Amino acid sequence: MDQKTIDDMVKDLVEERLKVLGKISENYDNLSNGGEEESLPSPQQNTQQKSVNSPALVGETPGKDTGVKRTLAEEFDKDTGVKRTLVEEFGKDTEVKSTLAEEFGSVAKVTDLDFVYVSPSKATKNDKDAKNELAPESDVENQEVVRSAVVKEYREKRVQLSPKGFALTIVSSPPVFPYIGEDGTTCMRKNVKPSSAIYDPLAPIDLMLFEKLMQHIKGIPPKPPAPADKPAVLSPDHESDFYSILIHERPWPEKEYGWVFDKHVGAYINVLIKRSMRNPTPFWSKRIVFIDVWVLSFWIHDCKQFKIKSSMITFKGNGYEDLINGKLPLECQTNFKWYEDVDHLYGCLQTGGNHWVTVHVDLKKEKIDCYDPIFGHATPESEQRILDSFKPLTLIFPVMLSELIPANLRSPSKKKFAFRRRSKRYTPQNTQIADCGVYSLKFVECLALGVTFDGINDNNIQGLRVKMAAEILDEGGNNEMNNLLVN
Fold it and tell me: Which of 36, 40, 47, 193 maximizes the CB count within 10 A of its CB?
């Protein structure tokens, strides 16, 4: 089947589905929540700066005027002193040659790769002798290409969120998720069956959770002023900053204001861990776990030491063994043992010191997937950043597993895990930049639920930020801060 035939099929099916969607009322009034919230003019972002305690966020709870007089606007308008610099990696449109050739074999041209692939079957004891290859341009069948186009049309038409996380569209008698079309279309990934307890990760924010979040923010004590000789520093260590970084609408007081920290990522990963422990689990399989962000960072650090001298690193009798046996993180122990109870690992990894991506490790297939929300142009710098971040994982995983997993469950082997960076055809892109952490967390959640990424986009990301903050608070809040307050 040639490309033109596929394109024609996609076009015809999309038009057919849109006719079905057209039967739904086109009067998409902005969310009223039963007449309680004022209508929102558009999903576009407000041009007024709003602090976490400003009336625009706290006082605009649907149907209520709280009359809040005190804000943190002055505090958030100050120079926060955050100096994290975004690497200029998406500038020139160049060809990646030397970087990938050195790491993964001879490459003629890789400016628009589907993914980079290291074949475990061709790995040898000596990494320098490993025969590596690029995977085919696409691993999706033609029929799945057509279905994916239909799913995307449905989801992007239905999933439209306001900056506060409320629905901008009203659908009478919507299908029960994961069904998204009257003809039985679902947004499940191929060959994945939904849990009986599945939920929509892109559903509008719950009104009660929104009000709970606003009340919590109002009650946060003011942040102590910075010393006279030092600039104010934005820090998730303070409760007001923790939530403001997540929910502050653009334009931000400074370019990097909304960049999420490790603590934000860790807090939402804990939300997902707690959900995975429910019975029944809402996720597509019971045999999954979520990896704490600090654990991934430790792996990268320890691998550097391991490469210098392998005897410097041991995996038994420490946190690594606790992790594999489901004893970490301490506040969310699952007791799920890798290989015995777990096949898939999901998490977020910071690359280059300032960019978040999603990690999926398939233990049985011994491969690692990377989902990058800001793929950009493939340049030597951007590719090297990804390679530097993931190569330690491909090396340390097999060694750690060989030492800790019983031989009857996994035959000892030190072959490198396969690695691929999924292209932007599979991964929604954060074109406005600075939301990579939130994108990556939603990718993790969607992968665990077994649903597509459709609906995660720049138009909805502000609403998803607010929803994420509300769900973090509802599931226990900023755990690290709570522990400090208790102690």
Answer: 40
